[in-house]
Amino acid sequence: MRRLNSQFTTKYISEAGTKPENKDYFGFVEMDNMACWVVAQGYDKDTTISSAKLAVDTVIGEFTRKPSLSKTTIKRCIRQAHRQLKLQSGNYALKASILVVVSNYSKMRYAVCGNCRLNIFRGNTILEKSHDTSLYQEMVCNEEIADDGVKGIEESRNLLQYLGKQGHLKIKVSKKKKLQNEDILLLTTWGLWEKITTVEMLDALEGAQDAQAYIDDLQDLYLSKQTNTVNNHTIAAIFVSKVFQEKNYTKKILKIGLMILIPLLIIGIIAAIVQWKAEKKRKEMITTITEIETRGDRYAQEEDFDRALKEYESAITEGKELKNKTGKKGEENTAIKDRLEVKQRATQYLIDGEEAYISGDYQKAQESYQKAIKEAKKEMDFYDLLNQESLTTKQQMFQDASYVESLMALAEAQVGLSDYVGAAESYSQAKQIAIENGDKTAIDEINLKIKEMQTSMEEEMQQQMTQQQEAEQEQKDQLQKDGEVIELEGDTLLAEGNIDTAKKYYQQAMQMYKEAGAIDKASAVQTKIIDADSSAKEQDNLIKATEGDVYMLNGDNLMLENKFQEAIEEYKKAKDIYSQIQDSDKITEITEKITTAQTRQKETDITAQKMDIGIIEARGDEALKLQQYGKAKEFYLQAQALYQGINDMEKVASMQEKIKIVQQLEEQTAQTTQE
User: Fold this and answer.
1) d(CA 182, CA 8)
2) Are 137 and 111 in contact (CB under 8 A)?
3) What are the distances in angstroms from CA 178 to CA 240, 434, 453?
């Protein structure tokens, strides 16, 4: 129960500043015997997934499952976070920096990947400061620039290692460090330490009574250095008031060890020699396997999958002699075998896909490539090694070839149904895809099919033309007779007052006359349609005018209820109707009503905006009373911009005057501090 016999206090702040969202995230877990603190900063533009939160949650989840101070455990947790970012990347590649600190309440380790930073303070001095994985850190280590300075600080954002990167991820973990009472651990993201130096961190520590007061002082110092832009920033302070005291069993262990050391020494030496020889043989075997595997990786990278498969199979054969052991060496042997089997299966699937494509089984080709990608993702380093663009291109090529095959089958069916237009479109689409993919065999086959279709189409068209000419005259005679009957029915309907139905009959009769070539009869029917339209239009205008009056009345009622926007919508409906019937008086009247409603709506909106701005101004006044000059100025500047947006220049001048007062008070405070 180490936690109950120690005292670690953790406090933190994580804010977005003036940015639209906070890309930082901090989390920690304190268990009975172990604790883990993690801070991360995201760099991607994805708005649906927080890369920093995903990384922190993954590390804490992995650590909680199997807590340990070992380097292997910390690296495993960080690599799992790295894999999660890559697997969940969508429209944007997820990327993040991370800092992990673990402790058993008496000792600690930490690991950094990116530009998050850890400072360890003991007394009034800095005990240790973590190194970043950035170009800035390399320049500092090479003594090109001084640490904790301004020069070159922007290069701290040029990261050499970070979560989500392509290729192999290198992780450096610190040695174990023994903690003492009153030690202080400070975890920060780049947004803070790029503005605050280590000396300033120590100065702020002198007056801090506890962890909360310390991070508050650091944030105030940080904000005082900002202008209009404040970056995301996270500060986490761990005050170690009491560390767990471990009992010293050294003397007892030495005494017992001396009692049994001599009898076991000879056995140990013999066993060590045997083990040394076995381990030497195992390492030589691993070296051989690694050389073969490396050749296979090179061939896979060059997309020579046949040779890559032979190398992986050769490596698997060599690896059969690696024994299944327990412990670290056994895990290493198993990991090598599993890795080789993944590469062998993935490469075999890629070869199967190529062969299926050549044989024309495009569905199997797509399935094989999907299996290959799924298998390769079990070893992300191998997956990153493969040419992703080439894999995607080939998958698309397989899909296109399958689609071309489907289009050609569809075209043949359309030809059988005499749908030559549809068939031509299908062949054209298939040919375009084949040209884009450079599939000459498919292009030649499509061209042949198009020629066969054209021959069939010409023969069929010739037969149809002969039959059509014989039927056309007979059809024209019949059409004229039918038109006369329908025209007579239209006359009857018009006499009964059924104008719309009569027009339909007239239009049908007119069309029949045109098709029959009886132009005089078609013109006479056209005159009847015009007369019917004139009569119907008068009736329709009366109905529409009534409908427009209803919308205008609805708008008047909504104006009385101060529902200006809804009234405008009703007035616009009325205006559309009046425009259709060309009632200029009503259009003028309704336009004036719309203008009045818009004016009153705008006055209401401005009043509401002034109330909201007044709240911001009041916050500035409150901050001024509390002598929080930085926050007061920020509120006044925000209120000034909003007043200017609604053209209230009197209020703009008032805000400018208040800002001057705040600046004068800040200058007076600064002078007093210097004195």
Assistant:
1) 10
2) no
3) 12, 68, 86
